[in-house]
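Technical annex, item 7. During the second reporting period the consortium partners agreed on a shared format for inverse folding records so that results from different sites could be compared directly. Each record opens with the tokenized structure and is followed by the designed sequence. A conforming record, contributed by the partner at site C, is shown below for reference.
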């Protein structure tokens, strides 16, 4: 019977998770801008708060902070695109030379592949691509709609971020007022903790990613690796996706160094990346992240894997903040359960431990109804 009861509980939980996932998928167009706007707001809020404390109107402070942020993002994009466009032809030529070198190597010992085998392998790949031509064409057309949806999402993020950092201090009191006294108190406490945790994670991860990008980018520049500024920027943004982002950014840097500068330079780049990431993982992350995240590395890795498999890059980016926020909620629920367990052991134990049975002062000694209740 106990096993049957727990089986029903697990089935109910699984059904609830499926329904919740379906709701999130249906409302993803709305939820994604809101979540991204919350993340952006945690970055911009300290600057806006500093300006409002000095007498700047909230709307003006929010607008100035947001415009500065948009200018930085636009500058980063303007830095990446021309560099990529200018150096892609050179990288393409070097990649072709690298492929030819690989082909010569596999034809020699110890692999000893025949030219007919290599051509057959290439012909198989070409045939697969030709067979999926219709899918590729449809992907191009769907990419147009994807680009338009990205523009709409970006605009929504900017507008929502403006209102979040402008009216943020008034949101919790309003939510408290419409939720009632007891529920509003819990909601306000939980959301405050979530906001502090999320803000600490974003700011800490930005600092760690900036250190990685500066040192790795400096090493790439010294070694003369092409697209060094672009790779440094990719390293910075990849740092917001723990484990996976650093691996992908590092692998891309090593691959470009191998194609453009040769095997020795690629080994040096690999050594620089490993050294920087070891310092980050063993020194910076434990000192900085433990205070803001309080999540085990296994939880972080599983969260990134689940988020990436469900929602792609955006899901991987939002997975760790979501896990941290969920952990805050679970800790708060456990605190309330423990507090109720202590308060509700027994009347005698409650009197011995000293909790006030009437914290709000609703029952008085001279109240007849209170006397009747005791009787």
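Designed sequence (site C submission):
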């Amino acid at each position: 019977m106990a096993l049957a009861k727990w089986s029903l509980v697990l089935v109910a939980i699984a059904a609830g998770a499926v329904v919740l996932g379906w709701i999130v998928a249906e409302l993803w167009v709305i939820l994604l801008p809101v979540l991204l706007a919350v993340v952006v707001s945690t970055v911009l809020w300290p600057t806006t708060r500093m300006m409002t404390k000095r007498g700047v109107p909230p709307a003006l402070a929010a607008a100035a902070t947001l415009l500065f942020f948009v200018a930085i993002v636009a500058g980063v994009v303007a830095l990446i695109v021309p560099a990529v466009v200018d150096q892609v032809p050179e990288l393409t030529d070097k990649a072709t030379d690298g492929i030819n070198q690989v082909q010569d190597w596999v034809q020699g010992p110890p692999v000893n592949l025949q030219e007919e085998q290599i051509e057959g392998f290439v012909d198989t790949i070409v045939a697969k691509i030709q067979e999926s031509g219709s899918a590729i064409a449809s992907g191009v057309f769907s990419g147009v709609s994807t680009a338009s949806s990205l523009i709409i999402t970006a605009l929504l993020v900017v507008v929502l971020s403006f209102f979040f950092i402008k009216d943020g201090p008034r949101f919790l009191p309003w939510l408290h007022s419409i939720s009632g006294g007891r529920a509003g108190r819990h909601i306000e406490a939980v959301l405050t903790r979530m906001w502090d945790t999320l803000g600490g994670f974003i700011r800490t991860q930005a600092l760690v990613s900036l250190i990685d990008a500066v040192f790795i980018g400096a090493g790439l520049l010294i070694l003369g690796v092409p697209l060094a500024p672009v790779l440094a920027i990719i390293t910075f943004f990849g740092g917001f996706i723990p484990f996976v982002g650093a691996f992908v950014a590092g692998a891309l840097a090593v691959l470009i160094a191998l194609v453009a500068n040769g095997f020795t330079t690629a080994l040096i780049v690999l050594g620089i990346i490993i050294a920087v990431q070891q310092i980050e993982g063993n020194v910076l992350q434990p000192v900085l992240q433990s205070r803001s995240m309080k999540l085990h590395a296994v939880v972080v890795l599983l969260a990134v894997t689940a988020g990436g498999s469900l929602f792609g890059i955006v899901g991987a980016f939002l997975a760790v903040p979501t896990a941290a926020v969920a952990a805050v909620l679970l800790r708060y629920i456990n605190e309330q359960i423990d507090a109720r367990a202590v308060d509700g052991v027994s009347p005698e134990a409650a009197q011995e431990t000293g909790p006030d049975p009437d914290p709000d002062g609703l029952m008085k000694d001279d109240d007849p109804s209170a006397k009747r209740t005791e009787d």
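The chain has a mean pLDDT of 76. Residues 58-107 form the longest helix (50 residues). All partners now use this format for quarterly exchanges.
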